Amino acid sequence: MPLSSSALAGPTPQPSTPQPSTAPPADRPNRRRADLLVAAVAIIGAFWVTSGLWLDPNGRAITVNSSDQALFEWLLAYGAHALSHGQNPFFTDLLNVPDGVNLAVNTSVTVYAVVFAPLTYLIGPPATFLVVLTANLAGTAFGWYWLLSRHLVRSTPAAVLGGLFIGFAPGMVAHANGHLNWSAGWVAPMLLWGVLRLRQPGRWLRNGLLLGVLVAVAFSIAAEGLFFTALACGVFLGTWALDRGRRAEARALLPTFLRGLGVTAVVAFALLAYPLWMHFLGPQRFHGTGFDPVIHAEDIAAYGAYPQRTLAGLAGLDTSLAPNPTEENSFLGLPLLVLAVACFGLLWRRAEPGGRATLRALGVTALVFTVLSWGPRVKIFEAHTDIPLPYALLGHLPVFNAALPSRLALVVAPVVGLLLAHAVDLLRSTPLSRRARNGWLAGFTVALLPLFPATLLTVHRDPVPEFITSGTWRQYVSPGGVLTPLPLTLDLAPDGQRWQAYALAHRQGEFAIPAGFFLGPGGPDGRGRIGPVPRPTETLLMEVARTGEVPTITDADRATARADLRHWRVQVLVLTPEAHGAKFPIRWERVLEVATELFGPPEQVSDVWLWRVSS
């Protein structure tokens, strides 16, 4: 097994890697106790990070990314609704009227939506979102601990350290700011476990079937993460197999490995044929992404910097080197980088020749993903240069053009975690002087303590209006008809999807909305964009909501507004004084003033202002 602790062992005789099936009976209770303890610590840590939301799941939102939170709440509600009503989980007409939205090219989290559908109907989308987010963090830490303890290291403390570090690494905590896809880091160790099993002789069919199912699950939760994991496996295994000391072993394993991989491909394709067709050939598809790869590339200095939501960040040592707090993908801190290099050197000196092949593969993987995460051009301390990097050659290729380069840094933290775990494993089995042991202990403390995670920042989020919760909206909108909040729903004003999610999860029926927060076609050079191509009335109302500046409304503006309403097939316009802005407060008084100029005096129904639109 390429990553086993025996492969990295030094010349001193070492016990073999413990396996679940061969562990002595006396060890199994100890392992179970360790498993339960790690699971408890992981759950407590996940609750700590998300504790601000647990205070009021329906009334709190993630401060820096409430728009993504609203989107994933909607995806959970729509997925449950599609399952119970026999609708297409990969395309919807409820958003972006009249064109609809291709959810296969968005992050539809289909597996989560299906598995948690009963919970969504029972406690609502916001609370279900929080349950999944918390489980993601805890599952990531425990998943890496499990992989390490069962297959990669001998000592339990080494597995615990590696699992908890990777599970609560800065990138994982950053993406807990609203991303149910990227916070699902437990997918990676499960995929790696499946890949390692492909080498087992005589079991290629069963192992290939299992890995194929895991690939399909991973695609439905985090397709971008699946791509990164596959790419990392390719770089690691390719480097390991090309080592002169491992070529014979690689050739012997290759037939079994390829048979299993072929079964994996067949099973995964069979399960994913329709979503893949929708992704690449379906309606409202796009190529590339709506995000600038230069902006969303990792700053070289970010690797040595500290993130915001850590002890170091709370002490004022954080930086603004990420495009936003959700994308602090590296931010390991300079002491940890030094410690990782020291651990690599320690393991290299003590490793057997075969173990050095494994270390070399780990080092190459970390280096490749670090350089690729820097994007197409060098950026350091927020200064952009014209110095080209390898990603400039890859960024236009299929799949690469749909990924953000900075997120490639998320592969580096697990590699660092593996090095730390193997180093602890070696140090525990090696006689050391008190001075050396204390030195290593101090090094680990100085490197890891500043990265202890802080709780996510949260903010009050106004509730869904009574006009929606009471079902009053059904008196004004025909089944499946179009209702739109003012301003129109976008990533900056996600209320429309929150209202939809409530109606779907509480079995009130369907109403559609124009626009919405999603990725769709219409960006520059044929790439995607966030939301639809804007129409004049949408732009006007959003600008008023953002700035509070009221323009002079002319008859031409009114005519344009009527044309836009006809295009969207709107039956009713709704404005609430509790409108939520994801990045700025909605100036609802000014929106009311402009909407009255455009559409005439509104009715006051329940807790909203309402404009009926005649056919």
TrEMBL record:
- Bilayer-spanning residue ranges: 36-55, 103-122, 129-147, 153-173, 208-237, 257-277, 330-348, 357-375, 408-427, 439-459
Where are stretches of biased composition, namely Pro residues?
12-27
* Start and end residues of each DUF6311 domain: 41-403
Instruction: Look up the domain of life of the source.
Output: Bacteria
UniProt-listed InterPro entries: DUF6311
- Segments of this protein annotated with the region Disordered: 1-29
The alphabetical list of record keywords is:
Membrane, Transmembrane, Transmembrane helix
Keyword Acetylation set for record: no
Q: Name a Pfam family for this protein.
A: DUF6311
Name of this chain's protein: DUF2079 domain-containing protein
